[in-house]
Q: What sequence folds into this?
């Protein structure tokens, strides 16, 4: 991860080996500039604790289910802000 540059990172909040908060913490310590380029994908916004954590990151949140137009808007929005 540290030898590459990324324009954008889409990540789910639930993953097999690492959850969203753990991923974000690792990214923050290794490549802090990339934290502005993260889009979190989740189907679990009803969980107040998770929602509050997601909002605290300042990252864009894409709620499931979503369609290709939602993804396009998210990409444009993040890339415009970080350009």
A:
């Amino acid at each position: 991860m540290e030898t590459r540059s990324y324009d954008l990172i889409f990540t789910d909040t639930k993953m097999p080996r690492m959850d969203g908060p753990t991923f974000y913490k690792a990214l923050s310590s290794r490549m802090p500039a990339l934290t502005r380029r993260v889009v979190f994908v989740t189907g679990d916004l009803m969980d107040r604790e998770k929602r509050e954590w997601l909002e605290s990151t300042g990252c864009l949140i894409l709620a499931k289910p979503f369609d290709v137009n939602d993804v396009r808007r998210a990409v444009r929005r993040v890339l415009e802000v970080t350009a």
User: Anything to note?
Assistant: The chain has three helices and three strands. The chain has a mean pLDDT of 91. Strands lie at 9-12, 38-42, 60-63.
